[in-house]
Amino acid sequence: MLPVVAAALVDGEGRVLLQRRPPGKQMADLWEFPGGKIEPGESPEAALARELAEELAITVDPATAIPLTFASAALGQRHLLLLLYLIRDWQGEPRPLEASALAWVLPQDMHALAMPPADVPLVAMLERLL
Ligand SMILES: Nc1nc2c([nH]c(=O)n2[C@H]2C[C@H](O)[C@@H](COP(=O)(O)OP(=O)(O)OP(=O)(O)O)O2)c(=O)[nH]1
C-alpha cells in the first residue's frame, strides 16, 4: 500500500492549483495535485505541509487542511491510497520547484487535461464539492 497526500489548493475564484509532473519521472507530463508520499511516522497533515513547502515553497498550517475525499487505485504492483485535502489558506506565492509547470484550473476544465488515472474520480468529486 502506498499512502499519498495531495492538496486541492483553491483560490477565491474556485480554481484549483495543478502541477505538471516533470519529464523523466513516472507519469511524466501528467497534471496532478501537489503532494507526495507520507513518510513512516508522519501524520498525513504534516506530510502535506512538508510536500507543499518542498514543491511550491508555500507555508500551510497542518491544522487548516480539511479532509475532502480519497482515491483508491492500483498503481503498478502497488496500491495507491491518495488522501485529498482542501486548502484555502497558505502563505507565499506557489512556485514550481519540482514541477515543470503550474496552472490554476476550474474543476470543470480538468477533464481536458491529462491526469493520472486515480485522479479522474477526484475531479468529479471536486466538481460537486467546490
Ligand atoms: N502528488 C500526487 N501524486 C499522485 C497523484 N495522482 C497519482 O496517481 N499520484 C501518484 C504518483 C506517485 O506514484 C505518487 C506520489 O508520490 P510522489 O509524487 O512522491 O512520487 P514521485 O514518483 O513523484 O517521487 P519520488 O518517488 O521520486 O519521491 O502518487 C496526484 O494527484 N498528486
TrEMBL record:
The keyword DNA repair applies. Signal peptide: none annotated. It catalyses: 8-oxo-GTP + H2O = 8-oxo-GMP + diphosphate + H(+); 8-oxo-dGTP + H2O = 8-oxo-dGMP + diphosphate + H(+). Its EC number is 3.6.1.55. Residues 1-127 form the Nudix hydrolase domain. It is an enzyme of class 3 (hydrolase). It holds the Pfam family NUDIX. Keywords: DNA damage, DNA repair, DNA replication, Hydrolase, Magnesium, Metal-binding, Mutator protein. Transmembrane segments: none annotated. Its cofactor is Mg(2+). InterPro entries: MutT-like (IPR047127), Nudix_hydrolase (IPR020476), NUDIX_hydrolase-like_dom_sf (IPR015797), NUDIX_hydrolase_dom (IPR000086). Belongs to the Nudix hydrolase family. This is 8-oxo-dGTP diphosphatase.
